[in-house]
């Protein structure tokens, strides 16, 4: 059969991307986020995708855009191979194509698509808009793959556009360390499992909160305030005037790493907006220059000190050349209202300074903060990111004064890593709130700030409402969560959020219902290309990942890590007299044990390791923070013990000798009380045995399912 074509183009100028395919039948299914409109054509034959597909970019426009259309096309091809398994799909080609521009004019970020038996044409207003169209195609393919008729897409034409400019999420990386490699493949751009695929959930902003500190009132107001964890994540260059600001170099991103991260995000249609939070949340700066802090409040900088503003400007001087986006956040939240004039002057000065240092190419945003000055006001060029209604800002009042607003209302859009103080925030966004929590029983959308008072919400089309950003905070620090646990919290929440920030609520007849979303989310999350955050693996019969009878030397498997749910069983007999040299290894609670760093490792993977410690306990290690989480059980030495580990996304426990032992962590909740919380670990499946363990390991079995 003669191959057909798929083309991707842009409005003015016109870009083209063509596919060659075959043909059979399928309906147009709901997607996440929903497509604004689709009308089936009279043509009976559908468009069918096959391994014969060819991708061709018009030679006249293949370099247009940033990233270019050709670059987006290459990423699209890779994603298509990931979903379909068509490894023989040919490389992207550049050719001399011709086609008329779209008959409709999509709005900014909008695109049209036309499907016939011979072609699938995507027409956008730029290379990014054409990229959004490829996300729609990928979801159609994912939901159709595996059907008896093959990958078959019904003929017709559609049009789509996001309801708001800003659609994103914020990750608190100031109080929890994340490797740049994880940020680049994880929830954060490949939540483009979400971000990049779920049309890329069509979120396009990754707000990266890159400086902060933990909070404990007794400690921060006392003489030992320096021992509170704080971090500044950008690694200053050698000899930099701010070099001493980041003493934890192993928990910083180099300029090269951050530029690479931005490039990775950009290649998937996502923009990083970095945040350096001052003058509050600034304990890292006060540890470096204590004379700049407010006495008794070392996390607050004294804006009246003559060196404070020059120091903050020097920090931005170091980091601004790293940043490719046209907007940054200076944080500026939760500062003393009694210092309102100093605060407002600071915000305005930083807005002017950053604009001037970047040749008027960068603007700033700040968190909405109640600063009741009677003399001064923040310049309206500054975007206000609202988060606390009505305590810190009332958005409709801000917009009435000419401010542009981003909705991050905590009552709808806040999560806290693992748990929150007294249940203030949920584990994931609350479905009842997102689908029916607005006044009158409607769903949430970026124009909704209040659950109960319609007068404090605005119209969806208010030009000063830029959009919305949901947030996940790490208030309890490194020991509270593993990076994958953050992904588990975010995955479904981001998909719901994406639908609501793209389509809104009560605006389009094609918006998803809750039932429609639930029916397709699982399939789309599992099919997302290039992310592997679920750590899903192929199994043998009976859900077996691997089995080993006797482990006499390290065995390297084909599995780097296996995500929950899983069951890992083994028999272990630790030696009574290990001979390895010992060093201090940190525990999650701030204490330490003596052990070689890789001593006693019986299982190892990219996310975790499982140790038999010198004190004969069984401890998981988080390979990001290198913290150990010991089980409250001590093994007898020179005696075989059978262990059965079960894990889900919410917990991990071991059955030993008929008793259940849980892996937990202790969280300091604002210095007011301690709270135990369960830990979830991926199975360390890359290497079985070895790494300094002295004893016997046998009868090993890893199963999918807990």
From TrEMBL:
<keyword id="KW-0378">Hydrolase</keyword>
<comment type="similarity">
    <text>Belongs to the glycosyl hydrolase 20 family.</text>
</comment>
<feature type="domain" description="Glycoside hydrolase family 20 catalytic">
    <location>
        <begin position="166"/>
        <end position="503"/>
    </location>
</feature>
<protein>
    <recommendedName>
        <fullName>beta-N-acetylhexosaminidase</fullName>
        <ecNumber>3.2.1.52</ecNumber>
    </recommendedName>
</protein>
<dbReference type="GO" id="GO:0004563">
    <property type="term" value="F:beta-N-acetylhexosaminidase activity"/>
</dbReference>
<dbReference type="Pfam" id="PF00728">
    <property type="entry name" value="Glyco_hydro_20"/>
</dbReference>
<dbReference type="InterPro" id="IPR052764">
    <property type="entry name" value="GH20_Enzymes"/>
</dbReference>
<dbReference type="InterPro" id="IPR015883">
    <property type="entry name" value="Glyco_hydro_20_cat"/>
</dbReference>
<feature type="active site" description="Proton donor">
    <location>
        <position position="334"/>
    </location>
</feature>
<dbReference type="InterPro" id="IPR017853">
    <property type="entry name" value="GH"/>
</dbReference>
<dbReference type="GO" id="GO:0005975">
    <property type="term" value="P:carbohydrate metabolic process"/>
</dbReference>
<dbReference type="InterPro" id="IPR029018">
    <property type="entry name" value="Hex-like_dom2"/>
</dbReference>
<dbReference type="InterPro" id="IPR025705">
    <property type="entry name" value="Beta_hexosaminidase_sua/sub"/>
</dbReference>
């Amino acid at each position: 059969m003669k191959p057909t074509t798929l083309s991707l183009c842009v409005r003015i100028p016109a870009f083209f991307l063509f596919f060659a395919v075959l043909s059979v039948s399928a309906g147009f299914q709901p997607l996440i986020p929903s497509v604004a409109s689709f009308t089936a054509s009279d043509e009976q034959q559908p468009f069918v995708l096959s391994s014969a597909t060819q991708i061709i970019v018009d030679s006249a426009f293949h370099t247009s855009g940033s990233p270019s259309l050709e670059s987006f096309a290459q990423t699209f091809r890779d994603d298509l191979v990931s979903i379909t398994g068509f490894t023989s799909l040919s490389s992207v080609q550049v050719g001399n194509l011709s086609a008329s521009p779209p008959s409709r004019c999509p709005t900014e970020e909008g695109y049209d698509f036309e499907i016939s038996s011979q072609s699938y044409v995507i027409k956008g207003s730029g290379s990014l808009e054409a990229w959004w169209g490829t996300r729609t195609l990928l979801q159609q393919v994912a939901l159709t793959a595996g059907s008896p008729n093959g990958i078959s897409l019904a003929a017709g034409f559609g049009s789509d556009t996001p309801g708001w400019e800003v659609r994103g999420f914020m990750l608190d990386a100031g109080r929890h360390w994340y490797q740049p490699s994880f940020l680049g493949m994880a929830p954060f751009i490949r939540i483009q499992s979400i971000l990049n695929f779920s049309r890329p959930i069509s979120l396009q902003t990754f707000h990266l909160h890159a400086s902060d500190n933990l909070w404990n009132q007794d400690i921060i107001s006392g003489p030992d305030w320096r021992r509170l964890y704080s971090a500044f994540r950008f690694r200053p260059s050698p000899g930099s005037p701010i070099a001493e600001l980041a003493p934890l170099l192993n928990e910083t991103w180099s300029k090269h790493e951050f530029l690479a991260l931005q490039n990775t995000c950009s290649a998937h249609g996502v923009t990083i907006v970095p945040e350096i939070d001052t003058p509050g949340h600034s304990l890292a700066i006060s540890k470096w220059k204590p004379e700049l802090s407010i006495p008794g409040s070392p996390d607050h900088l004294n804006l009246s000190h003559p060196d404070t503003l020059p120091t903050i400007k020097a920090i931005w001087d170091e980091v601004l050349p790293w940043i490719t986006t046209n907007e940054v956040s200076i944080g500026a939240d939760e500062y003393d209202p009694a210092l309102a004039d100093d605060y407002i002057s600071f915000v305005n000065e930083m807005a002017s300074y950053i604009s001037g240092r970047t040749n008027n190419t960068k603007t700033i945003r700040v968190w909405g903060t109640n600063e009741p000055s009677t003399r001064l006001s923040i310049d309206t060029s500054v975007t206000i990111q609202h988060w606390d209604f009505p305590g810190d800002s009332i958005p409709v009042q801000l917009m009435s004064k000419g401010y542009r607003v981003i909705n991050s209302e905590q009552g709808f859009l806040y999560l806290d890593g693992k748990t929150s103080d007294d249940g203030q925030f949920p584990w994931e966004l609350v479905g009842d709130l997102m689908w029916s929590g607005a006044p009158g029983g409607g769903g949430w959308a970026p124009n909704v700030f209040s659950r109960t008072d319609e007068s404090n919400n605005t119209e969806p089309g208010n030009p000063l409402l830029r959009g919305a950003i949901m947030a996940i905070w790490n208030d309890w620090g490194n020991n509270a969560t593993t990076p994958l646990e953050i992904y588990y919290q975010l995955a479904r929440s981001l998909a719901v959020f994406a639908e609501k920030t793209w389509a809104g609520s009560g605006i389009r007849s094609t918006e998803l219902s809750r039932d429609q979303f639930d029916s397709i989310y699982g399939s789309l999350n599992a099919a997302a290309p290039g992310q592997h955050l679920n750590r899903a693996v192929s199994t043998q019969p009976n859900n077996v990942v691997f089995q080993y009878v006797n482990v006499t030397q390290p065995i390297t498997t084909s599995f780097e890590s296996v995500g929950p749910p899983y069951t890992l069983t083994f028999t272990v007999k630790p030696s009574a007299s290990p001979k390895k040299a010992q060093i201090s290894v940190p525990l999650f609670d701030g204490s330490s044990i003596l052990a070689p760093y890789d001593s006693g490792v019986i299982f190892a993977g990219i996310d975790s390791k499982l140790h038999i410690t010198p004190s004969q306990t069984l401890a998981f290690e988080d390979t990001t923070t290198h913290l150990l989480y010991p089980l409250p059980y001590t093994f007898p030495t020179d005696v075989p013990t059978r262990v059965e580990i079960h894990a889900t996304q919410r917990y991990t426990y071991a059955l030993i000798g008929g008793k259940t032992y849980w892996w937990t962590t202790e969280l300091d909740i604002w210095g007011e009380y301690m709270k135990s919380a369960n830990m979830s670990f991926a199975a360390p499946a890359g290497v079985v045995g070895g790494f300094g363990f002295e004893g016997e390991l046998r009868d090993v079995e890893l199963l999918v399912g807990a």
